[in-house]
Amino acid sequence: MSEHEYTPASKFGKWFNDRLPLLTLASHLTDYPTPKNLNYWWTFGGILTFCLITQIVTGLTLAMHYIAHADMAFESVEHIMRDVNYGWLIRYIHSNGASMFFLAVYIHIFRSLFYGSYKSPREIIWIIGIIIYLLMMAAAFMGYVLPWGQMSFWGATVITNLFSAIPLVGEGIVTWLWGGYSVDNPTLTRFFTLHYLIPFLILGLVVLHIWALHVPGNNNPVGIDVKKPSKDTVPFHPYIVIKDAFALLMFMIVFAFFIFYSPNILGHADNYIEANPMVTPAHIVPEWYLLPFYAILRSVPDKLLGVIAMLSAILILAALPWLDTSKIRSAVFRPLYKQFYWILVVDVLILGYMGAMPAEGLYLLIARVATAYYFLHFLVVLPVLGFKEKTLPVPLSITEPVLGGTPSLAAAKQKESFEK
Amino acid sequence: MKNFIRSLVIITLFCFSINHSYSAETTKLLKTDWSFKGLFGKFDRGSLQRGYQVYTEVCASCHSMKYLSYRNLGEKGGPEFSEAEVKAIAASFEVIDGPNADGEMFERSGKPSDKFVMPYDNVKAAQAANGGAYPPDMSVLVKARGGGVDYIYSLLQGYEETPSGMTLDEGVHYNKYMYGNKIRMAAPLSDGIVEYGDGTEATVEQMSKDVTTFLMWAAEPHLESRHQMGFKAIVYLIILTILVYFSMKKIWSRVESEV
Hints:
The complex is a heterodimer.
Chain A: H1 11-19, H2 22-31, E1 33-35, H3 44-63, H4 73-82, H5 87-115, H6 123-145, H7 150-161, H8 170-178, H9 185-214, E2 233-235, H10 236-261, H11 291-299, H12 303-315, H13 320-323, H14 335-356, H15 361-388, H16 409-419
Helix pairs in contact in A: 3-5, 3-9, 3-10, 4-5, 5-6, 5-10, 6-7, 6-9, 11-12, 11-14, 11-15, 14-15
Chain B: H1 2-22, H2 45-57, H3 83-91, E1 94-97, E2 106-109, H4 123-129, H5 148-156, E3 173-174, E4 182-183, H6 204-219, H7 223-252
Helix pairs in contact in B: 2-6, 5-6
């Protein structure tokens, strides 16, 4: 940001900008040099920002009509669905919006994994991203509790009970979390408060995430550093703005299909039954986006170890920049990593499927193998691969991605001096 | 771009398959052609009105519908009874109101703004009257069951002779589609149990379809406007997407070579 020089045209603009350089910021954002070879997987950053804003706006509107009370929450949701003007629309956008948010964030994360966007010098962007992802899961979980249906209640019971696995103080912590001796009204009101708070924390972290991104600039499909600004980059506006807008619109079409034609398909039918502490549902399952971690939790026979495994599965991602020892970022030039990458994708999908199935027999066995493989990928495959893998020749710039064979050092030097 | 769409489709399908496995039924549910499915799906007005009749004459003696008001019966997208009909329907129920100026509760005839009158005073009373089983509230029942309308439609027609080798407790009935095949509710419908005003023959199949349609509307009273708005929204988005696509092509043509 510092190398950016900008002087407003108008006198007032100059006066204002000297005191608060908002115009410099705006100019930086529009001119921000972006690699021109970004593909559509890169549009999900913008899509995620849209998802966050949508969730906040619809959430605020819902909060005006929702009543956080164990006796009235379910009814107030029905009131929103029936009597509030377009309440059904706002609620369906919000509930499906959570799913779309996670769909987008998983694509965003797996894009990062494929193109090595987490590697130096982008570790901080990545770690902030993982914190955002954790907060998203917390917000989504608590949001799912608010309608106070059967799955809300029992989901809250199962997840909060995980803390009882902590030795010695576990039970005390659970009581403290609940604000009583079971999930009840105090639990609901605090979940509502936190569900309201977390999106704004996420918003703040998103600002940091983007700020940290703007220091080294975007990674790109080739995974090499680009000189900026240069022939390899385009200004953010209008090039990336219009491309993001196009991708966002396509995403919105999918989103709209869910809202208008299958608004309940991603939810569980049991959540339209009012919470009843005396009746346990036949299967307690979390929302689809938490299923892989739920499968990891259940595949460990010991409760405490299961909780540790589940948390490690997420936190291990934060260590990824150091677990991956390869200097090459993009999987395009890493033939072996590319294969392991797709195995990991399949592994996570299998875990998700097993999370929805009862934890018994063959399902449990497959879930255990998939869990073991998940950790194997990060703890063994990635560190070893960096040393063993024979990578393909990496081009010198994205304008000339293919030079045919290994570029000679002399040619590179010559090119560099030529550019100077 | 191709890869991108392919992956999106796979992920979406995967989510669907998970969801379907949630509600995996052992018995195949009966199917019928629901008028409210699809892009332009609308309720069959006649079916909704007949369905209300089945609900109020058969189901309502045990099942409440606490989130609905009589005024809903006249609203657009519902059974669309006329204003006079809605008033007459509401007036046919006795509602407890109060307290009045003397501090007494009193009975009066219903108004369109009243909620549907509950068959029992509370859950305990409902359980006591039904051998310990609570007849679930029907306001959102179709959304609260895996299989939705097909499940309710099948369940109503799923009563059969108890298979040999299966013993049922007193007051428990065999139903092919019920979870565990045991249900407290006796077969609620039999041919001709209601007499339709429009001359439709009141077979069990017909009544099941009508009352299920009515329950679908009760659970999703804005379904019709949702479908209408959805179609407009998606057409709008598609047109806008096409326009933005060509703008994008134009703008990017300034960059010498696309990589």
